[in-house]
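Q: My collaborator sent me two sequences in one message, no labels, and asked for predicted structures for both. Can we handle them in order? The first one she listed is below.
A: Yes, handling them in the order given. First sequence, followed by its structure tokens:
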Amino acid sequence: MLTQMRALSQNVFGRAIMAMVLGVMILAFAVWGIGDRFTNFNADQLAAVGSTKITVQDFRNAYQNELQQLQEKAKRGITNTEARRMGVDREVLSRLLSNAILDHEAGKLGLAVGDGEIAQAITQDRMFFNPNGQFDRDRFNLLLSENNMSEGTYVRSQRGLMMRRDVSDAVVGGIEVPQILKATIFRYQSEVRDLTFFTLPASAAGAVPAPTQTQLQQFYDERPTAFTAPEYRKLVVLSVVPANLVKPDAVSDADARKRYDDYKDTLYRIAERRTVDQVFFPDEAAAKAARDSLDKGQSFADLLKSQKKTEADVSLGTVTKDQIPDKALADAAFSLPEGGTSQPVKTPFGTVLIHVAKIEPGRTRSFDEAKGEIDNQLAIIRAKAQADKLREDIENQRAAGKTLAESAKAAGVTPRTIDAIDAQGFDKAHKPVEGLVDGPALLKAAFGADVGADTEYLQAPGGGTVWYEVLGVDAAHKLPLAEVKPRVEAMWKADETARRLAKASEAIVAEINGGKPIAAVAAAHGDLKLYKATDLSRAGAPQLPSSVANAAFGVVVGKAGATPMPGGDRLIFKVDAARAPPLKPGDEQFDKLMGQVKGGIVDDVLAEYLSEAQHEIGVKLNERALQSALSDDSSS
């Protein structure tokens, strides 16, 4: 949820361009650095961009949001030291400074965003939609609450984002890719080649004699990691996951009926839905004038035409009352008859007229309609309660000094003993250990714990709990040569064969490049079969390894080359021809490619613009306040 909200808060308006702008800005500050560092700031002031101040609290709030998102992804706590090692502090600071620069530029240009435009964007943003594809006020409030943000704060932040978007649009909106660059890049991407080739088998390397003891020892010594056994750990693991305890078939009809009777007017009620339109006006007078026109006989459709709006521009969709974000709007919409239009309604975003196109009356589902859903609901409730009870019982047993195995037995569940597992989840036969709940988090924790240590349980996705204990450690160690000698011999032989085959390939390529026909060369080396490949692109071909395309596009037309093949063979080829189609504006692939090229140019232009703006405005940083903001943070 927080990840969605963070993406939302940065990119509701103009997502694509703002994501690109922020990326460029962060890079820009990393490259340019901060212009000045001063110590004569107020204690609560972290930085200044022209006359715009960034406070320590601004930084802390942004930093904590970023840190919380990282912790959600990692499913563990992240210290300030770790976060700073990852550059989180500089990324957050760069974002704040960059936003301040664009805010300054927007102010200098006199840009403004109307309430109606913000309201319409919020109610039409899919991030706030329910599964039916409609704006959901509850979801909107939940996302704001999860991020400790009021509606007013959110609206102000979006107003700023929209103005920053307008600034960036003004800078890069008219950029086009030069025709000569289009042609060059398109040719590079779309060029295809025709090859003649044959496969030189590994046997062409000749008989490889057995290695001497000295050769084996040297090969073994030069590749220590190849002959090192990883660390293995013996674990006892217990997982309790509510989803595994859900048993809808165990719910009796009597229990289901009781739940239905208790909640039929709420949970099993299908709310009244209305198809609602809202038309925003610049002020109350304009809304009243429009309402007067309707009173005089103008249809709602004609009103939209007069306002130069379409149905899609004004539609809120078919919604329940609680899905309309503003109470005054909701009350107006659900007090109108079908086909009715409201009087002007004032909202925080402007004055609107509400129109109800259709009404779908609410009703209560029958018990039979809701039975399956009720069984699932009760089963999930009971599974969660059972999981909570097991967690409490097991933790009480562990607190009394019992081992995990003893605690599990007392609670009536069976733990799992894993005799050997490495940090990547493989056993000693290098087979994956299956069935681990939240395996990556479990392995990370288990390989950071001491043998016999009293470890904290892990919270798994879906409300699950995972306990573990380390029973033993088989430390990583280099295997003795005597133990791995057959493997060393096999690897040495494969390496020597590849070396000899590569040398033979070089000689063959030299023959072809010297003017000898490739067919004659193939015949001279064991009557090897020739093949043709046409229209080979840089992406390769299904019947050929990607290495072939890489090698073929590194050779001029008429010349030969060689590349390794799976299994130890070598492929010898000659480039017969190369061609590229003409430019194809309007073609989907062409337009996609040119869009990527334009994105790169836009990045460069934005970086230049922001660099110049930074130097013109002036950016000052209070390093002492920055260090204090980080050191005062509780996550350190």
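Q: And the one she listed second?
A: Here it is, processed independently of the first:
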Amino acid sequence: MPVSVRVRVRVLVSVPVLVLSLIACGAPSPPLDTQSTFESAASRPPHASSGTPLERYFPLVDSHIYSYATMTETGDPGALVLTARRAFPTHGELRASARARRFTYVPEGVVSADSGAFVLKAPLVPGNSWPGEHGGATRIDAVELSVTVPAGSFAGCVRTVEERGGDVPVRYTTVFCPDIGVVVLEVTSGMGLERAELKSYAPPVFIGPDGVVTTTRPAPR
């Protein structure tokens, strides 16, 4: 007997805390032109890089898609899908639906261009701290971490924790892995919990009229 599983896809509205952490601090983005987004590799630099030391822990490769499995404290499953855009070596962005969050690579680390706060800051040693993106203090909690998520197992990762006090204390835990980026994001507040784990990270895939699978949109004939 077929089994129907209802999965709620909570990309922008139904995962408010996670999206606040990853996207909602950014400005509305212009309409996404899929033709220009996924145009042939010959017309876009495929691997723009700033050459800064910490970019490896937060690489934004143009057109690559991050797919996350999400869950709440009640175990409700969901999904969060982000698309990376990278037109310049020192700037990039993540997009979800109609919003975009922009980042800048600087010698000291990775900065949220919208808030001016560091997402990740050198040196990568436990205890290093800086003013966080959400009004709290962010610190490096662990380095050389090994983690396993639906996308696979990763080593050499860095975990940061931002804690904000006040009437509604919030704790943001993020795991960055080399050459991948954010593989785990967890937000807790009181008894509430939102968690996202990386499920896949890859360029878009297109199946052409002749059945050939490519990772870039074929040029018009």
